[in-house]
Amino acid sequence: MANNQHSKGLHISLWVAQVLLALAFGMSGFLKISSPVEKLAEMGMTFVTSYDPATVQFIGVAELLAAIGLILPSALRLFPILTPLAATGLAIIMILATQYHVAHSESPIANLVLFAIAAFVAWGRFKKAPIQPKK
Hints:
Layout (H helix, E strand, L loop, with lengths): L1 H33 L2 H6 L10 H24 L5 H22 L5 H20 L7
Helix pairs in contact: 1-3, 1-5, 3-4, 4-5
C-alpha cells in the first residue's frame, strides 16, 4: 500500500512539474516567435540581442514543441516516450542557457531551477513512473 501511495504521489508530482514546465516554455517560446528581438530585450530577455532573429525564433519553436511534448503524448498516451525526451531536450537547453548567462555575468538561477525540474521529469518519466501507451 505504501509503495502504491508513493507511486501515486510521484506521478502527481511529475504531472505538476510537466504542467509548470509546459507553461513556462510555452509562454517563452510563443513570445520568441511572435515578438521582435527589441521587444524581447526590453522584457528582460537580453540574450536575444546576441543572436540572429532566426536563431531566437528557432529557440522559440523548440520551446513550444517541447511544451507540447511534455503534455500531449502523456495525456493522450500516444507515444508517451516523447514526454521524457522533451524534458531531456529542455534540460540540455537550460545547460546551454546557464553557460551563456554565466559567461555574460548574469544570474543563472532561473535556468538552474528549470533544469532541475526538467531533469526530474526526464528521470521520473524514463525510470520511476513512465506512462504506458494505449494498447
